[in-house]
């Protein structure tokens, strides 16, 4: 699916988030830089076309690895980040080709919701991080307490967004899937519980948009 929508992915991401998505990525990285100035090896997982990688490069890493399942998204990533600091790798998040404790930081922008085997992926992220390494997730989570805003958001997501997304991307179903994937995903509270279960300490949960888009910053504890 991501191969199919890759040509219009960036444009639609900015449009459908009201041009807020890059601000959320920037804020996440600003917070990370307040925690440490030593991110030598960074993993941008489910990196897609590389917008989170753009922010990660501002942390001056020695190496950035941009990992994704979609070859077409990685081609865009490679075009966006021509610096030799960035290496694109086609791999499943569930089975990463890196040694234990290799990374100082792993980040996932709008990716975890798509993982078929989320628990296995979190175990794998924990494995490739150093003790004390940071893990940041920016994601659309299922709202905990439906209120008027969330009902409006559901209407936007279910009825309006798929029409715009499908027609601009030329895909019949990709943006229907977006609604279903949020509706079937965890709440941010359940997600943080899962991270704690697999050895992470939660440093900060930042609500970016109506309790739906959140940034979760965690640290590998064990
Ligand atoms: C919505 S895009 C996010 C791209 C980018 N991180 C961003 O911030 O815009 C989700 C990406 O997750 C990738 N993906 C989905 N499942 C994956 C998996 N199991 N392992 C690696 N990448 C995966 C898709 O190919 C797609 O490029």
Q: Looking at CATH, which topology would you report?
A: Rossmann fold
| SSE-based structural type | alpha/beta
Radius of gyration: 17 Å
Q: Average the pLDDT over all residues and give the rounded result.
A: 92
Looking at this structure, what is the CATH superfamily?
Vaccinia Virus protein VP39
Q: Number of DSSP helices? A: 8
Shape: globular
CATH class: Alpha Beta
Please provide the ordered H/E string of secondary-structure elements: HHEHEHEEHEHHHEE
**CATH architecture tag:** 3-Layer(aba) Sandwich
Strand content: 15-25%
Give the neighbour order of strands across the main sheet: 3-2-1-4-5-7-6
Quick one: how many beta strands? 7
Q: What fraction, in percent, of the residue positions are helical?
A: 40-55%
Low-confidence spans:
none
Intertermini distance: 35 Å
Bound small molecules, by name, code or SMILES, are: S-adenosylmethionine
């Amino acid at each position: 699916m991501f191969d199919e929508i890759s040509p219009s992915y960036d444009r639609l991401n900015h449009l459908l988030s009201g041009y807020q998505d890059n601000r959320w990525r920037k804020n996440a990285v600003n917070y990370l830089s307040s925690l440490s100035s030593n991110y030598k090896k960074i993993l941008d997982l489910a990196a897609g076309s590389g917008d989170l990688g753009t922010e990660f490069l501002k942390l001056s890493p020695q190496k950035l690895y941009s990992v994704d399942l979609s070859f077409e998204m990685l081609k865009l990533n490679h075009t966006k980040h021509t610096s030799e600091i960035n290496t694109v790798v086609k791999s499943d998040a569930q089975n990463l080709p890196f040694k234990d404790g290799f990374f100082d930081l792993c980040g996932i922008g709008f990716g975890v919701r798509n993982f078929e085997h989320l628990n296995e992926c979190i175990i794998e992220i924990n494995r490739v991080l150093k003790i004390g390494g940071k893990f940041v997730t920016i994601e659309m989570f299922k709202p905990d307490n439906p209120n008027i805003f969330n009902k409006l958001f559901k209407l936007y997501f279910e009825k309006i967004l798929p029409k715009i997304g499908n027609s601009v991307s030329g895909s019949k179903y990709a943006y229907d899937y977006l609604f279903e994937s949020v509706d079937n995903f965890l709440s941010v509270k359940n997600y943080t519980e899962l991270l704690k279960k697999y050895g992470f300490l939660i440093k900060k949960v930042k609500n970016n948009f109506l309790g739906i888009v959140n940034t979760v910053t965690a640290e590998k504890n064990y």
